[in-house]
Write a structure and sequence with these properties.
Layout (H helix, E strand, L loop, with lengths): L1 E6 L8 H10 L3 E6 L9 H8 L14 H8 L1 H8 L2 E7 L1 H9 L5 H8 L4 E5 L3 H5 L1 H12 L3 E2 L3 E4 L5 E5 L3 H11 L10 E6 L4 E4 L2 E3 L6 H12 L3 E6 L11 E4 L3 H11 L5 E4 L6 E3 L17 E3 L3 H8 L4 E8 L3 H11 L4 E6 L11 E8 L3 E8 H23 L1
Parallel strand pairs: 1-2, 1-3, 3-4, 4-5, 8-11, 8-13, 11-12, 13-16, 16-17
Antiparallel strand pairs: 6-7, 9-10, 14-15, 17-18, 18-19
Helix pairs in contact: 1-2, 1-9, 4-6, 5-8, 10-14
């Protein structure tokens, strides 16, 4: 997911650097667009270094030649189509006026007119400018057009006056952006420990036991939790997908390594969601050399550690959610696992169905807790992730209510 952050000219422009970091913490890519006045307060290099993206500073690029100019001339259209939201922080009275009147005389104002994505503005200015009838009229126009206004705070202003006009707190601005993106911040303050992917149990130096798990479900939960404001600790078996940048990732290979990593991180967590498909068995003794083909052979196996049961045994106040991949007696087996391992909830899916579960971007699941059963019809794993997190939020609220 990507947003454009418009930075306009004002002393509060320096605060936009922290907004970039907070958005990145939630897994959001940020491309900064600066007005000419903003560049008098903060150098574009600052935002380039923080965001890892090109910073747009003018309507037409600095390159020479017709090709460079043509590319720059249509860049606002390309960015307008690529972003999921436009945030302007700080938004000066001048920017608000140009947005309200449809004046497109720089990259930011042109981008505003060109995008159909949600728009959030966080005004910052002198108290008299904020209270002026023209500014308030422009704000009313923008509100009627669906622009989200993050009201400025009251306090001591850079100009020496006191009153409304201070840029809202960065967390408040980011929360408004996440709401515009459809991701509430209901997991803010939580530390979510997610396990994902398969494990590999060594047979010999070139062979191992594993399963079909791609890690997509766990990675989707990790990213969705970040979007909803959580700190995410991701313990991942071998996968071919890229982890969310803001997640704190521990890479493991075997069930034993995953158990050690999870137990180490457990005291830091408030929620544990165990999506990993851990191998149930491993070779009793791995061969030191490659096993040669000599006809039939017998491979003696032993059970691996039951990570979920161990986590449930050691938990303090954490909410523990397990996953179960079943091929028969799906709900019956899931309920047994829920009870035997003292889980708060279990997410079960029938992996015998074609097109869902392993090796797929889609899933269908049933979320079972002590008090309810929630059916999630076939949809994307991203949507399943949010339905699981919805249940986590309910479980946390219930637990907090009981504790009080």
């Amino acid at each position: 997911m990507k947003i454009a952050l418009g930075v306009s000219g004002g002393i509060a422009a320096y605060k936009a650097a922290e907004i970039v970091r907070l958005l990145q913490d939630r897994g959001i890519r940020v491309q900064v667009v600066m007005t000419a006045a903003a560049q008098e307060f903060v150098r574009p290099l600052t935002f380039a270094a923080l965001s890892g993206e090109k910073v747009i500073t003018s309507m037409f690029g600095s390159g020479s030649g017709d090709e460079a100019n043509v590319e720059s001339a249509i860049e606002h259209i390309a960015i307008a189509q690529a972003i999921d939201a436009l945030l302007v922080a700080p938004a000066t009275a001048d920017v608000l006026a140009r947005f309200a009147q449809g004046i497109a005389n720089d990259f930011l104002s042109t981008l505003y007119l060109a995008t159909t994505a949600p728009v959030v503005v966080a005004p910052a200015m002198n108290v008299n400018m904020w209270n002026h009838a023209a500014t308030q009229a422009n704000l009313e126009i923008l509100r009627k057009r669906g622009v989200r206004i993050v009201e400025p705070g009251h306090g001591y202003l850079a100009c020496g006056m006191t009153g409304a006009g201070r840029l809202a707190e960065n967390e408040t601005i980011v929360a408004a952006v996440m709401e515009a993106l459809g991701a509430s911040q209901d997991l803010a303050g939580e530390t979510v420990l997610v396990t994902a992917g398969p494990t590999r149990e060594k047979i010999d130096p070139v062979r191992y036991l594993t399963n079909r798990s791609s890690g997509r479900m766990g990675y989707a939960i990790a990213e969705a939790a970040l979007r909803r404001g959580a700190r995410v600790l991701l313990v991942s078996g071998p996968t071919a997908i890229t982890a969310p940048e803001a997640a704190e990732v521990t890479q493991v290979e075997t069930a034993e390594e995953m158990l050690a990593a999870v137990l180490k991180l457990l005291p830091e967590s408030t929620v544990v969601i165990k999506t990993a498909a851990v191998a149930d068995f491993r070779p009793k003794a791995a061969a030191a050399q490659k096993i040669k083909r000599k006809g039939e052979m017998t491979l003696e196996l032993e059970p691996t550690a039951d990570i979920l049961a161990e986590v449930a045994r050691r938990k303090t106040s954490q909410v523990i959610v397990g996953f179960a991949a079943e091929t028969e007696n799906v709900l019956e087996n899931a309920r047994k696992k829920l009870a035997s391992k003292s889980l708060d909830a279990i997410v079960v899916n029938d992996v015998s169905r074609e097109g869902v579960g392993f090796d797929s971007d889609r899933n269908a699941a049933t979320i079972i807790s002590q008090s309810e059963v929630v059916e999630v019809p076939e949809t994307s794993k991203w949507e399943v992730a949010h339905r699981v997190l919805d249940q986590v939020v309910k479980l946390r609220k219930h637990r907090n209510t009981v504790v009080r």
